[in-house]
């Protein structure tokens, strides 16, 4: 969805506040695709702060299902984002500003709600999600989720190369 910010530019101090649905059911990133299971309407507030600049205040409140970093079971993760951004719509952006420009959500005077929300969710996404701090993960032999019981795999057996290295180490010690 696009919101035209042009009418806002007519007067410094002008405010445009609105609520809008987040048009996203899943979130795709390089680390995976996560289902957005609940979402509250996004609250947006645009303020003309003069010189063609607009301050954007946004509230995003969603819940995503993200796999646990150890056992891969889905963990419902709430993301509550309150953000404040400033964009320059005057068209006279310095080269320096242009180089630092991360405002791909602005095109002309149009504000792209989905692109904006995507960027905000991306930077606020937790690096690692665990179902619990004591998650035992999965067996690296059979894939059993070790939180649900043990699988009986012998995980004490050493990798053959490892065993050899250990032997060398031992004989070295005996000398
Ligand atoms: Zn886990
Ligand atoms: Zn196993």
Describe the fold and architecture:
- With about 180 residues, the chain is an alpha+beta fold.
- It has two domains: about 1-125; about 140-175, no CATH class.
- It has helices spanning about 95-100, 115-125, 160-175; strands at about 1-5, 15-20, 25-30, 30-40, 40-50, 55-65, 75-90, 105, 110.
- The strands form two sheets. Strands 2, 3, 4, 5, 6 and 7 form a six-stranded antiparallel beta sheet that branches. Strands 1-9-8 form a three-stranded antiparallel beta sheet.
- The radius of gyration is 25 Å and the shape is elongated.
- The model has no long low-confidence stretch (mean pLDDT about 90).
Strand content: 35-45%
For the sheet with most strands, the description reads:
6 strands, antiparallel
* Secondary-structure element pattern, one letter each: EEEEEEEHEEHH
Instruction: Identify the quaternary structure here.
Output: single chain
